[in-house]
Each structure stands twice: as C-alpha cells, then as structure tokens.
Amino acid sequence: MKVDGELRIIDLIINNLKAVKSTSEVRRLISQNAVKIDSKPITSIDYDCSADYRISPSNW
C-alpha cells in the first residue's frame, strides 16, 4: 500500500533502483539484513525511505 509522499524500500529497490526483479528477493535480502541505509540494516519491508532517498550522479 502506497501513501502519498511515501516511498517504501521494496518499491525503491525494485522500481527506482532496479537492483532486483522480484518482491520475494527483496524480502529475502531484508530478512538477511543485506539492505542498509547509512550502514543501518533495514528490518521492515514497509520501511519508508522517502527522506533517505537522495542519490545524485556525483555519488555513483
């Protein structure tokens, strides 16, 4: 469920970053503490990362 202004981590990884292709793979990675923001593991698939999502070409 998407709320206005919210960007769930699962949507970010699949749709925006295109890092993985399936929801189940994102769930598995999160359950293994493999998804991190600022070195902090994300533990919920419903994590709202809209405030954390600031990627610029200079960071690539």
Notes on the protein architecture:
With 60 residues, the protein is mainly alpha-helical. It is built from two helices and two strands. Strands 1-2 form a two-stranded antiparallel sheet. The longest helix has 9 residues, at 23-31. Mean pLDDT is 82; it is low at 55-60.
Strand order of the largest sheet: 1-2
Helix fraction? 25-40%
Number of domains: 1
Radius of gyration from the alpha-carbon trace, in angstroms: 11 Å
Mean pLDDT score, rounded? 82
Which residues form runs of ≥5 with pLDDT under 50? 55-60
- Straight-line N-to-C gap: 30 Å
Structural category? mainly alpha
Number of helices: 2
**How do the SSEs run, as a string of H and E?**
HHEE
**What is the general shape?**
globular
Q: Provide the β-strand percentage band.
A: 5-15%
Number of strands: 2
Main β-sheet: number of strands, strand sense, barrel status? 2 strands, antiparallel
List the helices and strands and how they pair.
Elements: H1 9-16, H2 23-31, E1 36-37, E2 40-41
Antiparallel strand pairs: 1-2
Summarize the structure.
With 60 residues, the chain is mainly alpha-helical. It has 2 helices and 2 strands, in the order H-H-E-E. The protein has one domain.
